[in-house]
Amino acid sequence: MSRPEAEDRFDDDDYPAYTMGRAAEMIGTTPTFLRALGEARLIEPLRSAGGHRRFSRYQLRIAARARELVDEGTPIEAACRIIILEDQLEEAQRINEELRASEAGSRSDEQPSR
Question: Which GO molecular function, any one, fits this protein according to its record (predicted)?
Answer without folding.
Answer: DNA binding
